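Escalation from tier 1.

The customer reports that the assembly of two entities below gives different structure tokens on two consecutive runs. Tier 1 could not reproduce it. I'm attaching the input and our single run for tier 2 to review.
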Amino acid sequence: MNSRDQALLDEVEALLAMTSHQGHPLRSALERLYHHHLEQRERLERLVSIADGFQQTAQQDLHATRHQLQRQLKRQRKLSRIADRYQDLLHERNQTLEDVSTRDPLTGLANRRHLTKHLDCMAADKRQAGPLSLAMVDIDHFKRINDRHGHAAGDRALVALAQTLKSALRANDLCGRWGGEEFLLVLPDTGLDQAEALVRRLGERLRGLDLRLGAERLVLTASIGIAEHHPGEDYRDTIYRADQALLDAKREGRDRWCLAE
Amino acid sequence: MRQDLNLPGSASTPAIQSDWQAGRLSLQGDSYPENSYELFSRVIDWVEAFLERESRPLELSLELVYLNTSSVKAMMDIFDLLEDAHREDRKVGVVWHYDPRNERIAELAEEFREDCTFSFVIRPLEVSA
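Tier 1 run:
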């Protein structure tokens, strides 16, 4: 209310209080109008104050809700972050399990399960068009190494052979431990001639290994059977023929390779 | 006093023991239960009841390894209860034990610890050689 409004009200109040106006026909009507105005004014002020109160509560609610939302968002982000990291952990665990189930723990090479699976995949892959050779490698007189120098020496011989195999092979070749002292080489896009050249190189590297057991230098040799996969042939039969060729190499005096029929 | 929890745990659920008298709650193992709500609501109820009825300290001893998402959420809910209690000057604390061969678990425990103002210790387990 401004001062002009207040001055008017003061003037009306003063006029009503003057005794000289008692009995004037307009006085009673003015008095009623004056009181009516005062009531209206009070009501208006109350209304404004209630509306302000509501607005303030709404503001507070809004603020609290915003705050809660921020908290929830932060919490949600934390939850997702931790859950994601647990998922990574699980993934790593699976990877480790897969490694354990497909690798030979001593040599780090593929194990028999992995080799078989690899061959099955190759058999299922119809695009596999080129020649394929398999070579079965067996350390000569492995039992003698074990008996004479102990199992730790035998393990060293196996690891040394595994490293030599790995270093002699090409990127797409796969070698693994088939069992005991037997290793299988899977040589894709390789005919018998090429396989033979590769195996010759391998034999030379093997003989050149400097494997010392105490004062004694152990000369490592291997017998190897090579078979080329025939179109339509079951891989198990190719492995069988490589195995037979390996036996031939053993029979012929070891430290050599033989080709399968 | 309230009925204590003593759950043996399985491949997918943690072993859980509570000791109202000692003010201690322990969880060990992996947690990816089929119904994590059912499992953890019992734990959360126990913690809420303890904090409400007792004024003694409460300690959580954890040796958790793998947690699925709903278990992560349940643990965050439990830590929130502890945080609220701590803000009311209650003595509460967490000790999270982990296998030192698996540092990743310690890192995850650290993620949980973020924003917690109560005592939250991450400690390697003693492993016999």
